[in-house]
Amino acid sequence: MNTWPRIRLEKRSDTPHWLSRVTPGLSVLAALLVIAVIFGLLGVNPWIAYARILTGAFGSLYGLSETVTKAIPLMLAGTGLAVAFRARVYNIGAEGQLLIGAICATGVALFIPGIPDELRLPAMFLAGALGGAVWALVPAVLKARLRIDEVLTSLMTVYIASELVNYLVYGPWKGPSEWGFPYTDKFPLAAQIPRIGMTRIHYPTLILALLAAVLAYILVQRTRWGFEIRVTGENPEAARYAGMNYLRTAILVMALSGALAGIAGVGEVAGIHYRLRYPQGISPGYGFTAIIVAWLARLNPLGVILTSLLIGGLLVGGDAIQLAMGLPSATVYLFNGMILLFVLSGDLFTRYRIRIELPERVSVLVRQEREEVR
């Protein structure tokens, strides 16, 4: 006879509103506490490290501007991922869709003559959005038609996109004026997104990111299609029974997610670098980091605005402590990984509760004691 208690997860019939509110903050706090312990084991004072992160990210105009700069691609990609995840379509390929958007924008900037200067940037944004959307449709169609896991297929498309960028910048698109480096030629002035003053904040892309978050919130919360997204995400079988078109929902949310990631790619090549570079030079993993942004926002597009600034600040602060304290570059990945782990764990416990089942003999004794007390 089993004498050990059994521990299992039991789905909550109704999640308390307060629990949904406090879980993201508690998850981040728990992650920071664990990271503090790791800092201590490495011989680094965690309080000094966190103080340097805060001052590096938000303690100066330069740090604040860099935080906003890094938040722009996170906001765009995170908004798209929040909508896709809300429909229970797990797009893990935003990084690849961002790179494809960068490729398409570069093609319009350098290799399509005859476009009027005032239309060059709009054409680049449109090409980047279409490229990212089409790239996202591959795993979407495989998911909807053949029930192939979109997590695996969307992740595989990231590596294909990365190698495509490498092929172009080391091959046919390698710029003769770049002294042998794996870059394209510099974009013409008409293909460069303007910035705010001496900062790297390319404000047209920032405006697009903010508009995308607001419109995505309205889409999900105030439209019929948004209702279908919510129902599909909460109970796919009920959605099918109600006659909702799962194929259409999956394809549309993936296309939207890919389009926004593609726009983020346009912002990086046309607003930051002014050329197409090797993959890590375009994006240090923004598409993957946007997964943390979306989950930390509880898949709320408006919440993505705040969480993208938070994670952008951690990226900038992580760079600051690398320089100031001699920590390895993996420090930033430590932050991202821990926060994602705890945020996902927190989300799990908002939907499930821990149930401890006592062995039968112990249960009988407990019932007898309760009867005696009564």
Could you give a short description of this structure?
73% of the residues lie in helices and 3% in strands. With 374 residues, the protein is mainly alpha-helical. The chain has two domains: 1-44 and 328-374, no CATH class; 71-299, no CATH class.
- Class inferred from helices and paired strands: mainly alpha
Radius of gyration: 24 Å
**Largest beta sheet, briefly?**
2 strands, antiparallel
What is the CA–CA distance across the termini?
29 Å
Strand-residue proportion: under 5%
Estimate nothing, just give the exact number of structural domains.
2
In total, the number of strands is 2
Share in helix: over 70%
Write out the strand line-up for the largest beta sheet, numbering strands in chain order.
1-2
Unreliably modeled segments: none
Shape: globular
Query: Mean pLDDT, as a whole number?
Result: 88
* Order of SSEs: EHHHHHHHHHHHHHHEH
Tally of individual helices: 15
Features:
two-stranded antiparallel ribbon; globular; 374 residues; mainly alpha
Task: Describe the fold and architecture.
The chain has 374 residues and is mainly α. The protein folds into two domains: 1-44 and 328-374, no CATH class; 71-299, no CATH class. The chain has 15 helices and two strands. It has helices at 17-41, 46-58, 61-86, 94-111, 117-146, 150-170, 203-222, 224-234, 236-241, 246-273, 279-282, 286-296, 301-325, 330-351, 360-373; strands at 6-11, 352-357. A two-stranded antiparallel sheet has the order 1-2. Helix 3 packs across helix 12, helix 4 runs parallel beside helix 6 and helix 4 packs across helix 10. It is globular. The two termini are 29 Å apart.
